[in-house]
Design brief:
By secondary structure, the chain is mainly α. The protein contains 9 helices and no strands. It is a multi-pass membrane protein.
Amino acid sequence: MTSFAPLLAGLGTGLSLIVAIGSQNAFVLRQGLRREHVVPVVLVCALSDLVLIAAGVAGLGVLVSNAPVLLAVVRWGGAAFLLVLAVQAARRALRPAALEAAEGGLRTAVGAAVGTALALTWLNPHVYLDTVLLLGSVAAGYGEGGRWAFGVGAGIASIVWFTALGLGARVLAPVFARPAAWRVLDGGIALVMAVLAVVLVVR
């Protein structure tokens, strides 16, 4: 019973951090709507989160917080990557050919999808700030006996969220059979990624 409270706290904290509009979630959602390499993408995102959560709980968050140069490099690199993805999403929204994905259009190779998922995870500064630093510091507050239970809860939140987002997106497939819906989705993704890139460099 002593480990149940930190586990629930980790679950709640993990969900509060991950259930938000972001580049990673937008990519998983789009792959789910396209029914394209969903399982590999979900696995990459969830397993990456588990590694980062474990690193934060183990104390890596304290180490990274003392390396401002590393944080700056990650921040600017992540912003540049987000801007590239924003441009790509905007081009998809403007090009009718890109809106055929819901009806069996050109498929992305599994390697490209997995590579994008890895980049969106590991080149995103918010991942290190939220998953490693924030979760790591909160977990440390539960002491040696409770911090790993907290980490398990946060890990469960990540697995549940990415699975629901990727596989549950199929429910919306009929809506996105229309080109206009894809145009709106890609336009929204472009806007979100551009805003996130700007936020990263002005914070």
